[in-house]
Amino acid sequence: RAAVAKYCKQLPPDSVLANCFCYTAAFSVYASKANELLKTINVDQSAGALELARESFDVNGLPTERHEFLEEDVFAYLET
Fold first, then answer.
1. E-assigned strands of the chain?
2. Which of 8, 41, 44, 48 gets the highest tally of CB atoms within 10 A of its CB?
3. Cα distances (Å, whole numbers) of residue 58 to 51, 52, 74, 79, 80
4. Would strands 67-71 and 39-44 be described as parallel, antiparallel, or unpaired?
5. pTM for the whole thing?
6. Helix, strand, coil % over all residues of the chain, rounded to 5
């Protein structure tokens, strides 16, 4: 997670991180805390996991407006 934060801190504004099989979106949280202009797309087939992901953002004081939470099969998502 620290490596993700370090890498994402260096990304230009409005970069996008796809977090597949995101579960609680821990990678997205670390990345977003390092680069507040980063957009994340969090994909998981579990609605419960995506709710936990949103809660992770809230608990860490991160607004969710710049982030997507998609309830989809990751492999189908990647095909599109």
1. 16-20, 39-44, 67-71
2. 44
3. 11, 10, 24, 30, 29
4. parallel
5. 0.92
6. 45, 20, 35
